[in-house]
């Protein structure tokens, strides 16, 4: 690797201890055996290499580091959401704007409860329907709506990326950071704080300018880690 790049990378570190949920292994086994090779096998029935790639991504372990103190029952929907981000990113990679709008509208409708899996035709309808059922066991309506708003940001980011892809243009660095702040799909996870802590904070706390800024900085920190 280029010595300059090595020098830059060496400066990136997290100045806080790493925690990891002790249920990571159990949820990873569920992800691989019950979901990728079971419940969602129909998404890639004849593509074992893609299924292997998803397994090797270790989505349950990622979720376990983001939600280190959640119970196994509360960690499960986070792991299902993490797997959904892989499936959805790949399926939207080559979408045009109209196709993306269709996926967005149906996905959010399922999570809002205004549509069922039988009312929609997107491949991930069943996964989202189950995710909604699991989240509603633990989240009040306000928390659920914040989570859905976070997913709306994600789809907005994907749409912004399509804008540049269609024109074969590159955004500026600041534009890229702003776009990736949404399209990296981290806001939905941040909005699940109540799921882990089991403490339902009032909405004015979640919407406070300082909290909003901290969320944005947390996402941008992950952008630097992911993109660099």
TrEMBL record:
This is Terpene synthase. Keywords: Lyase, Magnesium, Metal-binding. InterPro entries: Isoprenoid_synthase_dom_sf, Terpene_cyclase-like_2. Pfam families: Terpene_syn_C_2 (PF19086). Belongs to the terpene synthase family. Its cofactor is Mg(2+). GO terms for molecular function: metal ion binding; terpene synthase activity. It comes from Chitinophaga oryzae. Its EC number is 4.2.3.-.
């Amino acid at each position: 690797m280029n010595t300059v790049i090595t020098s830059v990378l060496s400066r990136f570190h997290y100045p806080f201890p790493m925690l990891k949920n002790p249920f990571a292994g159990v949820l990873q086994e569920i992800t691989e055996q019950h979901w990728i090779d079971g419940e969602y096998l129909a998404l890639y029935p004849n593509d074992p290499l893609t299924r292997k790639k998803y397994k090797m991504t270790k989505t349950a372990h990622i979720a376990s580091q983001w939600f280190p103190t959640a119970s196994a029952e509360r960690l499960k929907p986070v792991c299902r959401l993490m797997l959904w981000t892989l499936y959805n990113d790949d399926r939207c990679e080559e979408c045009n704007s109209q196709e993306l709008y269709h996926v967005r509208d149906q996905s959010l409708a399922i999570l809002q409860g205004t549509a069922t899996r039988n009312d929609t035709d997107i491949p991930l309808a069943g996964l989202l329907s189950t995710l909604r059922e699991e989240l509603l066991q633990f989240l009040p309506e306000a928390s659920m709506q914040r989570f859905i708003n976070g997913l709306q940001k994600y789809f907005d980011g994907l749409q912004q990326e399509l804008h540049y892809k269609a024109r074969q243009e590159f955004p500026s660095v600041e534009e890229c950071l702003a776009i990736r702040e949404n399209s990296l799909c981290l806001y939905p996870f941040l909005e699940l704080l109540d799921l882990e802590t089991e403490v339902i904070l009032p909405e004015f706390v979640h919407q406070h300018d300082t909290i909003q800024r901290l969320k944005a900085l947390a996402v941008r920190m992950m952008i630097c880690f992911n993109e660099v």
